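Working notes for the structural subgroup meeting. M.R. asked for a predicted model of this chain before we commit to crystallization trials. I am recording the input and output together here so anyone reviewing the notebook later can reproduce the run.

Input as submitted:
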Amino acid sequence: MEPTVAKFEGAAEPAVAVGRSATKVKRILQSAGLGLVVQHWIALETRAIPSLFILIAQAFPSLAFLVSFLSDRIRFYWLLIVFLVVYLLWRTRKHQLEPKQKATLRRILSYLKPHWPYVAALSTAIVAAAALDLAQPWIIAILLVGEVLLKSNLGFLPLVVGLLVGTFVVKEIASFFKDYLSEVLSQKTVHRLRTDLYQTVELLPVTYLDSSRTGEMISRVVSDTNEVEKVLSDDMANLISNAVTVSGAIVLLFVVDFNLALFVAPFAAVMVIVVNLFKKRIKQASRRIREAVAELTAKAFEVVSGLRIVKSFVMEHHEANAFRERSFAISKARVRLARLAGAYGSTVDFLTLCALVAVVWVGAPAVVSRGLSLAAFIAFLSYMDKMFKPLVLLSKVNLTFQKVSAAGDRIFELMDSEVEVLETPDALVPTTTEGRIEFDHVTFGYRPNHNVLEDFSLVIEPGETVAVVGSSGTGKSTVVNLLLRFYQPASGRILIDDYPVDRLNLKSLRGMIGLVLQEPVLFSGTIRENILYGDPEASDEDVVRAARLANAHDFIAGLPKSYETEIGERGVTLSVGQRQRIAIARALLKDPKILILDEATSNIDSESESLIQDALRRLTGQRTMIVIGHRLSSIMDADRIVVLEDGGIAEVGTHEDLLGKRGVYSRLYEAQIARGTSDGETRDELL
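Returned structure, recorded in token form:
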């Protein structure tokens, strides 16, 4: 009993034509001197294989249909090839499909979930456009050629033309919505991804920032998210559209002619194998490009930020060479990717050509012998094109997926970093703050076995001003970093108003501390906006009051736009002293109970320092103050001066007390005075 095979009228036995082609191949092999091999092969296929099928049919009557189907030699051999190809795919899969890559892509796609209505609408538009695109070859081949031209049925022509025009118009409308919804969906998704990544960067602990390059993080936030945006906006919809088109074309190929479709199947399977073989190398090349771009961004950021230093040391040529090397690394990586992509695309094109030649070689004789109708053959070739052309595009989209996978790895690597938790349910939130600080036997080091502070203990009473001095590396700034919980001590405790800081709500802890650094950090915008950074909810009166306390109001009021003056990037339009006073006003606006000045007057002129010192004197007793400094003028008025040496406290006392002890502080003071005298000018720098 012969199996029933779906086919068009006139497409009775294309396998007969295939059999004739196989006979021609045998004759060619015989003429090449391979007659003995051919004879054994003929004997096997004409006696052994049919006999085997007969035995199977007799032993298992229920398999009679399958045996009848496989007894055709062409079907048997091509199914055998398909089986071998599927086996090779299975063998290749476990080596090429990386779980991490799939997890990265799934994680990116998870950002689509909140926007499922857009996903549903986009999917509908994609399926509609693909279905209408697949309908056009059917209308042309089966209706126009088969019914109108071959049968001279011109009365059917208006209907065919109407169907062609209608499918084209509706397909274009669906394509418009596909492109529009794809862009809307990608922008909504990438906006959320970029925002999540930026928020992660803001919450990264200082320990992470110490070991990372700023430019590289910027590259991840900007460049890598742009790569994801490109895929979601341009390639994702095309990928789904091509996948739907390929699936529909495969089904229609088998509907048009089952045997001929079976003949084409191994070529498509081999193409999938090629995709898997190239995948790993392409991803590696893509990741190398992302890393090279990050290195170039980091280098450019460093040089532009420190351009004055570069110029002062006449290092322009050196930095240009360093930049050139990193730029060349990007070019080299892109050329390697282009080489892989070129080999990839050429291989896919060659396989497509082989499949087309094979079908024409087998199908043309079948059409001539009327074993296959011309309309069916034209439809088959059209759907082959509909199948292989999207497969080629899918292979190119695969390159982009390797890029987005590499970019996604870098994005999620940063997002998965341990971050600071500002608020936790069990954290303590003091209702009132007095500003008492206690370091209880604290030990800390930035590197293992290299402690900066060793069994450090210090108590600062509310409203007290304490200056911390010492030579470089003795841990002055470390005291501040530990108090703000930028780092955790190896042992010991730090308390504020008898609350352990490691149990305090981090947002509450940092909210009660005002910090002014040696190098004032201001942001692009107006003076008002920079002062409001201390408390965005503050009123204009509060801003002016904070500026007056910092002795900044007079110079601000003298500017043409007063508080609305744009200060430029990092406040470049202001002097260092003016920037520092704005930074102090910003810190005072939050009305902190603890004010920390980390060498805040070390880089400013005497006049600006005098104004700042005058402002600080007015704050004395109102809040606890820690002054990290090396200028005598900034520490002489302190209630106590703490001298650090060898990881601990060497001396504690007032300026006069410490000079009278003739200890470390006195030696530092006398050495500095001696240097100032030898320079022929008055110097007030202690360290």
